[in-house]
């Protein structure tokens, strides 16, 4: 977050790094995924004018992360899973704000058709954010 708005210069490369880290579990503590979600949150906050064009890729990656965290049956402790879900949800909420509510529109049908309670709860939080 030290770069602030200068992050825009590196956005394309940073996006590839973020997506790569979100896709792969890094062990029971999930330190890398938690850190990359924090990085994504800072990136969204500082480069918000550039987020609408990146929405499809980021939304897909965050939804995949929610699902993976919910379905993975590894040694990851419950508090770590909850932290991953909370940070991913926060990133979705920030994306929604940057994109003038477009995330909520895209998630409308998904929320009602999702049968998994934890994922549905994350989607509900996004839908109810202001």
UniProtKB/TrEMBL annotation:
Top-level taxonomic group: Eukaryota
Secretion signal, residue range per the UniProt entry: none
This protein's GO CC annotations: cytosol; nucleus; TTT Hsp90 cochaperone complex
Name of the protein in question: TTI2 protein
InterPro entries: Tti2
Family in the record: Belongs to the TTI2 family.
């Amino acid at each position: 977050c030290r770069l602030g708005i200068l992050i825009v210069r590196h956005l394309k490369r940073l996006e590839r790094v973020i997506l790569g880290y979100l896709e792969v579990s890094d062990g029971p503590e999930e330190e890398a995924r938690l850190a990359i979600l924090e990085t994504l949150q800072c990136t969204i906050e500082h480069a918000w004018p550039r987020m609408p064009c990146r929405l499809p890729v980021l939304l897909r990656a965050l939804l995949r992360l929610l699902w993976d965290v919910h379905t993975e049956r590894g040694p990851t402790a419950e508090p770590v899973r909850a932290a991953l879900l909370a940070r991913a949800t926060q990133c979705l909420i920030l994306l929604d704000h940057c994109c003038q509510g477009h995330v909520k529109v895209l998630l409308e049908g998904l929320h009602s058709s999702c049968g998994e309670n934890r994922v549905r709860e994350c989607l509900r939080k996004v839908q109810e954010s202001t």
